[in-house]
Design a protein that fits this description.
By secondary structure, this protein is α/β, with parallel strands linked by helices. It has a single domain, classed as TIM Barrel (Alpha-Beta Barrel). The chain has an eight-stranded parallel sheet. It starts with a strand and ends with a helix.
C-alpha cells in the first residue's frame, strides 16, 4: 500500500487557501486533511464545510480527508459529504449512535474513519474494524496545531497495525500530530501508512523539497 502524505490545511495561509492547497498538491502531496474543531468537543474552533466546498469550487479534485473533532457528529457528516469530502473520520465516543454514524457516512458515498485520542484505548477500532476504511491515531491531544509528538503513541500504532493486518479489508492507518522529518521514519516503522503534517510542511519555504525529504524517510 502506497504511503500517503496528507498536509493539514490548519497550518496553511487562509488568505490564499486555494493557491496554498494547489501548490502543496503540485509539490507531491497526496491528500488534503481537514481538522474540524467545534469549540465544544475540543477547545478550539476551526473550519466548516463551506471551506471544503470552496476548495472544490476552486478546482481541487484530489482526495479530501476530513477529521471531525465535534459533537454532535451526524449533522457535520451530512454537511461535509455534501461539500465534497471523500473520507470522514469521527471520534466514536462523540457519536450518539456509532452504527448510525457509520451507516450515514457510507450512505453518503464517503469512506469511514475512526479517530482515537492518545489516552484512549483501541476498543472501538477492534469492535468496528470491518466497517472502517481508516484508523486515525492522534499523536497529540486534539485541539491545537503545532504540538510535540507523543512518543507513547508508537506502541499503539504497532498494535493498530496488527489489528488491521488480521482483517481482510484494505484499511489505512493514519497518524496525526507532531510529525516531522525527524520522526516520520519511526512512525512509519511502527506501522503507519498515512501521515498528516501541518506546520512541518506549510511553515517551510519549499513544499516540494519538504515533501521529497519526507518521502525519502518513509520509502
Amino acid at each position: 500500500m502506497k504511503n500517503i502524505i496528507a498536509p493539514s490545511i490548519l497550518s496553511a495561509d487562509f488568505s490564499r487557501l486555494g493557491e496554498e492547497v494547489e501548490n502543496v498538491l503540485q509539490s507531491g502531496a497526496d491528500w488534503i486533511h481537514f481538522d474540524v474543531m467545534d469549540n465544544h468537543y475540543v477547545p478550539n474552533l476551526t473550519i466548516g464545510p463551506m471551506v471544503c466546498k470552496s476548495l472544490r469550487n476552486y478546482g481541487i479534485k484530489e482526495f479530501i480527508d476530513v477529521h471531525l473533532m465535534v459533537r454532535p457528529v451526524d449533522p457535520l457528516i451530512q454537511m461535509f459529504a455534501d461539500a465534497g469530502a471523500d473520507l470522514i473520520s469521527f471520534h466514536p465516543e462523540a457519536s450518539d449512535d456509532v452504527d448510525a454514524s457509520i451507516a450515514l457516512i457510507k450512505k453518503l458515498g464517503c469512506k469511514v474513519g475512526f479517530a482515537v485520542n492518545p489516552a484512549e484505548d483501541l476498543s472501538y477500532v477492534k469492535k468496528y474494524i470491518n466497517d472502517l476504511d481508516l484508523a486515525l491515531l492522534m499523536s497529540v491531544n486534539p485541539g491545537f496545531g503545532g504540538q510535540k509528538f507523543i512518543e507513547s503513541v508508537l506502541p499503539k500504532i504497532t498494535e493498530t497495525r496488527s489489528i488491521i493486518d488480521e482483517c481482510s479489508n484494505e484499511i489505512r492507518l493514519e497518524v496525526d500530530g507532531g510529525i516531522n522529518p525527524q520522526n516520520i521514519k519511526n512512525v512509519c516503522n511502527a506501522g503507519a501508512d498515512t501521515f498528516v503534517l501541518g506546520s512541518a510542511i506549510f511553515n517551510t519555504d519549499d513544499y516540494a523539497n519538504t515533501i521529497t525529504d519526507l518521502r525519502h524517510h518513509i520509502s
